[in-house]
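Page header: ASSEMBLY MODEL / two components / 518 residues total.
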Amino acid sequence: MAVDKRMTIAEVVDEIRDGMTVGIGGWGSRRKPMALVRAIARARRRNLTLVTYGGPDVGLLVAEGCVERVVTGFVSLDSIPLEPHFRRARSAGTLLLTEYDEGMLYWGLLAAANRLPFLPIRAGLGSDVMRVNPDLRTVHSPYLDGTELVAMPAVNIDVSLVHLNRVDAGGNGRYLGPDPYFDDLFCLAAKRRFVSCERLLSTEELIGSGPPQTLLTNRSMVDGVVETPHGAHFTSCVPDYGRDEEFQREYATADWNTFRARYLDGDEDDYQKAVARWRGTMDDYQKAVAG
Amino acid sequence: MTRAETCVVACAEAWRGDGAVLAGTAGLIPQLGARLAQLTFAPELLVTDGEATLLRDGEVEGWLPYRAVFAMVAAGTRHVMMGASQLDRFGNQNISCVGPWERPTSQLLGVRGAPGNTINHTTSYWVPRHSPRVFVERVDMVSGIGHDRGAHEIRRVITNLAVLDFETPDRSMRLRSVHPGVTVGEVIAATGFALTIPDEVPPTREPSDEELKLIREHLDPHGLRET
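Prediction written out in full:
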């Protein structure tokens, strides 16, 4: 009988303390653990360092003043190329940035996952990534070629948060969409690892829900499991649901204090209800427009 | 024949002769160009849906999640056509931010995969509005590296006015062709640094009847390229 790792959202947030380095899975505005992100924002954690392929996870936590530094290669909402809250904070000079090439970040997670101090990579050479990260060093191949490469340092993480489609109570987890992103590496690179999911299944049901190669996490990679239906909203969680483009637009354009009062002041349940109410209003509006 | 159709064909031409490499694209015109090339003179080209699926003429032919894209980047089996907020005469590109990096006047995307792309494999650029704001003496943040910083190959820059390349002794930017209806003077005026201008600048080649038919009836029947 496997250890039961089920937790509440509040219990996950209790594990995150001010100043920690938090890894967030997904990619841009795709399969982000948004229910957990919202809960961190509500709990008003401070001075976090986020490691992420950045999307609204970055924007939301930055807008709530939780973030000191972002370690990333980009921050984008995909269908809306530029993240407004991230942009605002960068221009205000209130946010520190460790800017890497996307492949460098992958390599840094891979190094951490393999307990290596660094991994060599070409990406970064010649670019201003070297200028804005003066601590980056290069290495030379010890073989006859002598090639100079970037020594991408391990990106070590205190707590990682990822969202998957199906998980069992022990932490075996499956993605059902087209891309695993780097969620397994975020778990392997972190000291503590929490997985939220659309549906919690028995191990037997989980195994029956897809082919074995889509089982991205095993029990050794996960410390806690939370069932959060619609927990990636408004990012995509294919095939359970696509991105909520209209709501993402609302997030990107609404006055922040209004958005917070409407969607973030309650708990996750209140958020989902508020989104449903907003959705109803939108549908009425569209029906009216359609005549 | 419209300007957008000329641009689609000019983008397609960038991949001519590449063989079985992955065509990465940012934006509709380069995407139409890659698909057109795959359907005509570059049948080996690999094209994705912009996410994790490889497509041949719109039909699924394979799987390519991000981690596999990074492997193709490192292996060099890719030719990407990126956008550029700024571009200089050696092909250094910026998509990260405008102004000082420490506190930008305008934060853009971040470097994304531009450093890794440009050092590992062939890169081209698509610039929908050719202007001195894009074509600058010096970019604010080198995201994609140019030929003076060790780029693998910056092959083409396709804009709404012209096609540019780097076929000069010092691999700096040269005017390769002007689109029908555009003068050399217009391109010079829209470029914030001195281009190499050949004595004879040919017009960008016009799409063939077959190419026009594919673009209009098959690839983009709703004419999104014109918007």
